[in-house]
Structures are given as structure tokens and as C-alpha cells.
């Protein structure tokens, strides 16, 4: 029988002192209590009520009840030995109409959560936007409309004013690619619109919102660590055929360069601009916007799950779309298809390639040497079963181990990697997949809410304890 903690000591020793060890969640996926205490509606509250949008017909009304269970969530983070927890703020819980009217009860929840974490020595990493736009702003046009970015800048200041005395790590926007292109091009995510040209305006305004938020936080607290979270994928051409090579350039451009170049260089990549010109005249990009977007940030937050192989000959329009009738998430690139490379896959059908994480971290550091990097999401869904009080999830344990080893390889190569957050702390509402996909280190019985740490969570906790005691004792 193999020792389940095999390799943990050696792996732990590869991480530096002061490394951030965490797990991540997001507001709509865990909080529930969507009607409680003056919270406004978000686009996800509306979307889940439209028939056919979520594969199991479920919603986030209860989720895993985090709004009512601060003590339980903090105890879970603590039981894993983590020194950090990444969660997001529900914008409509704090600003029910998306404007300057504040709901004090909403702010109090996050303030209490922050206090409870700090009391246990756990550092909060707060994401300002993880996809739950106030419905009131969607009613006025949503992210394709410029005003939404301005309102987001205001919201960042409201959040920082309330929490900034205690919260020092801020992530502005989580995965603008998903918010723009799954929300407004394919329609797989809320608000479910299929308007390819508008989705490019949405992407721009998400970045403008990022820039405004980053500047608001930095001017209020120059010591704060500010970041943006982007989902990165190594992209391979299916063959040497020119159409496939061009498809790889296009997908890499949108996924790996569009948002990052804007944030860190203040430019959009020329080749992608040319591609997008087929469907938009960019009239939403006003003078000065890219300077605003190019706000100084400290950390680039890397969300990494998988890799892509693409062709220029159509086929599957997405590597991961839910079977909810979504259109293409690739505006101006609808001819591109995603093909399997034959690697092992998770329950999402996402191919597992740990070396791709080292590759992305090394590449990002070479391209943007001025920022530190943190892995702010990494994890895998598998169909877990609770069996006499235990969840045996060797595939997830392997996944986390191999990706941490990939992080250590990046550290060895000189990448300034400051942290790792597993996605997710606990099983939760996985967007269009509802409760059918389990990503947690902790199993949740969705009927009773009961939590059970999975084998992968015990392994990760053991690794973190070893790393922290090795290093913190030095
Ligand atoms: C990421 C999201 C996160 C979760 C994981 C599986 O794209 O940021 O909320 O859904 O995927």
C-alpha cells in the first residue's frame, strides 16, 4: 500500500518561507442567502431561473450556506492548516442597485468574515468581482456599457473603505475572459447574451473596471497588494497546417495575451485587434482607457486548469462548454475547433497537464517580469462519493500534488511565485453545471450541508503544515 503522504516532505521543502497557502471560493458559488438582509439581485439570480440554463436546474439560493456559517468556513480553512483564504464579495450584497447606496448588513458579513479569519491568523485575499453583477446594472446594459466600469470603480472604493484597514490583498476582476465571452458571446454564463461584438466591448469595460478599481485601492492604500485574476492555458496547434497554426495564435492571443497585455503593457496585442476588427470598430475604446487599464499592480493571479489543442477547421466550439445550448465563446474566431490530445481528463472533460502550469508561469514571468505571480485557482472535479465518513479521491490528490510540483519547478526556474490557492475549499455551485461537479478539498452533502474533508484535503493540509513548520521554524 502506498503511503498517502508519500512525497509530501520533499515537496514541502521546495517552497520558500512566507509562501501563501490557501484555498478559494466565490460569493455566488458558496454564500446562498440570496434574499437575506437587503441583498440585491445579481445576474446569476436571474439566469438560474431561466429554464435550461443550468444542467441540473439548480441555483445558488442556498449553495453551501456560507453567509450563515462564517464560523464553519473559517474552522474548515483552519483545519487544513492554511494561512490564507481567497473569497469574493457579492457586489449586489453590498450595493443592491450597483450604485452608491450601501447595504450595511452586506458589508457587515464580509467584515465579520475578515475578522474571524484574522483571529485565526488566516490572511484574506479578496476578489472584488467573481461574476455576480448587480442585475440593476445589467438592466442598464451590463458590461458592454461603459458606465458599468465606472460603477465598479466606485464599488472598489466602497469595499476598500470598509475592509481596507484589515484586507491587504485585493484581486479586482476574476477571469475577465469568462465574464465577457461566456456571459456575452456564448451565453453559457449569466447574463446569457449571445452578442459577439458586444462581448468585446464587455471585455474592454471589465478591464477598464479593473484599472479604475486598482487605482482606487492603490491611492487609498499604497501598501495594498493589487492583482487581477486571469485564466491561462497553453495552446497547441493540432497540426502544422497553416489554418491550425493560425487558430493556435488566435486562441493564445485572446486567452493568454489580450487581458494581460492590456493590464501590464497598456496595449492590446496588434494581431488580436486585427482579428476582432472583423466584427467591431472598437469605438468603445476611448483615449486614455488603456492608460487607466495599465494601473500598477503587484501580483498577476494565475488560474490554471488545463491546456488546449485547436484546429482551424471547426468542430467542438469549446473545450469545456456545458450542454446548455451555448453558442461560440470565440467572437471573430468561430471557425476554430478544440480537439482532444488524448491526455487524461477530469470530470469536466478538461485535459490534465501539470507541466503546462510550469510553462505558463515561466512564460508569464519572462513576458511580465515586473510582477510577482500567484496561482489563485487550480483544481479538478471528480465524481466523489462519501463512503462511511470518508471520501477517497486519489485522482484529485494526484492532480494537486502534480500541480504543486509544477509550481516548485517554476520556483526552481526563478519564477517569483508567492502563493497557491486550491480551487476550491469545498464543493459548491459550479455555474452552468450546478451541483453536478465537485471541485472541493472538502466534500459537501448538498442536502444537509455537512462537510467532510476529502483525502486530497487531508493530504494538502499535511503538505501545508510541513511546509509551514519547516520554514516558519527556521
Ligand atoms: C474557474 C472559476 C471558478 C470555478 C472554476 C472551476 O473558471 O473562476 O469560479 O468555476 O473555474
Automatic annotation (TrEMBL):
PROSITE patterns: GLYCOSYL_HYDROL_F1_2. Substrate binds at residues 29, 130, 174, 305, 423, 430-431. Keywords: Carbohydrate metabolism, Cellulose degradation, Glycosidase, Hydrolase, Polysaccharide degradation. It catalyses: Hydrolysis of terminal, non-reducing beta-D-glucosyl residues with release of beta-D-glucose. GO terms for cellular component: cytosol. It comes from the Bacteria. Its EC number is 3.2.1.21. One of its GO terms (biological process) is cellulose catabolic process. GO terms for molecular function: beta-glucosidase activity. The active site is at residues 175, 377. Pfam families: Glyco_hydro_1. It is an enzyme of class 3 (hydrolase). Belongs to the glycosyl hydrolase 1 family. This is Beta-glucosidase. It comes from Glycomyces albidus.
Amino acid at each position: 500500500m502506498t503511503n498517502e503522504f508519500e512525497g509530501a516532505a520533499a515537496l514541502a521543502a521546495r517552497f520558500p518561507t512566507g509562501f501563501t497557502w490557501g484555498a478559494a471560493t466565490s460569493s455566488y458559488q458558496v454564500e446562498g442567502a440570496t434574499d437575506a438582509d437587503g441583498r440585491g439581485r445579481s445576474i446569476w439570480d436571474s439566469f438560474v431561473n431561466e429554464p435550461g440554463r443550468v444542467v441540473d436546474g439548480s441555483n445558488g439560493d442556498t449553495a453551501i450556506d456560507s453567509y450563515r456559517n462564517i464560523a464553519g468556513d473559517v474552522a474548515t480553512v483552519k483545519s487544513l492548516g492554511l494561512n490564507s483564504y481567497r473569497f469574493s464579495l457579492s457586489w449586489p450584497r453590498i450595493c443592491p442597485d450597483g450604485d452608491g447606496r450601501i447595504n450595511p448588513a452586506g458589508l457587515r458579513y464580509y467584515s465579520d468574515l475578515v475578522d474571524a479569519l484574522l483571529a485565526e491568523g488566516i490572511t484574506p485575499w479578496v476578489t472584488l468581482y467573481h461574476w455576480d453583477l448587480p442585475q440593476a446594472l445589467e438592466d442598464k446594459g451590463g458590461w458592454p456599457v461603459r458606465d458599468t466600469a465606472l460603477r465598479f470603480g466606485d464599488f472598489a472604493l466602497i469595499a476598500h473603505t470598509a475592509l481596507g484597514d484589515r484586507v491587504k490583498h485585493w484581486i479586482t476582476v476574476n477571469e475577465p475572459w469568462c465574464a465577457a465571452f461566456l456571459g456575452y458571446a456564448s451565453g453559457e454564463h449569466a447574463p446569457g447574451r449571445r452578442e459577439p461584438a458586444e462581448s468585446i466591448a464587455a471585455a474592454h469595460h471589465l478591464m477598464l473596471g479593473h484599472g479604475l478599481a486598482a487605482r482606487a485601492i492603490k491611492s487609498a492604500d499604497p501598501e495594498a497588494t493589487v492583482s487581477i485574476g486571469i485564466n491561462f492555458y497553453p495552446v497547441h496547434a493540432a497540426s502544422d497546417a497553416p489554418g491550425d497554426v493560425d487558430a493556435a495564435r488566435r486562441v493564445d492571443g485572446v486567452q493568454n495575451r489580450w487581458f494581460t497585455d492590456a493590464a501590464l503593457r497598456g496595449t492590446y496585442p496588434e494581431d488580436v485587434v486585427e482579428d476582432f476588427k472583423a466584427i467591431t470598430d472598437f469605438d468603445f475604446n476611448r483615449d486614455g482607457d488603456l492608460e487607466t487599464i495599465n494601473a500598477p499592480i503587484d501580483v498577476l493571479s494565475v488560474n490554471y486548469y488545463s491546456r488546449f489543442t485547436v484546429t482551424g477547421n471547426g468542430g467542438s466550439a469549446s473545450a469545456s462548454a456545458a450542454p446548455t445550448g451555448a453558442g461560440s465563446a470565440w467572437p471573430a474566431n468561430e471557425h476554430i475547433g478544440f480537439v482532444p490530445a488524448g491526455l487524461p481528463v477530469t470530470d469536466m472533460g478538461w485535459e490534465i497537464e501539470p507541466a503546462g502550469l510550469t510553462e505558463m508561469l515561466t512564460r508569464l514571468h519572462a513576458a511580465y517580469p515586473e510582477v510577482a505571480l500567484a496561482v489563485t485557482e487550480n483544481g479538478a472535479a471528480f465524481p466523489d462519493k462519501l463512503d462511511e465518513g470518508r471520501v477517497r479521491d486519489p485522482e484529485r490528490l494526484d492532480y494537486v500534488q502534480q500541480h504543486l510540483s509544477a509550481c516548485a519547478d517554476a520556483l526552481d526556474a526563478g519564477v517569483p511565485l508567492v502563493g497557491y490557492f486550491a480551487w476550491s475549499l469545498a464543493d459548491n455551485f459550479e455555474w452552468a453545471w450546478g451541483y453536478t461537479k465537485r471541485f472541493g478539498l472538502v466534500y459537501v452533502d448538498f442536502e444537509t450541508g455537512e462537510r467532510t474533508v476529502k483525502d486530497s484535503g487531508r493530504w494538502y493540509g499535511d503538505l501545508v503544515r510541513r511546509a509551514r513548520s519547516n520554514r516558519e521554524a527556521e
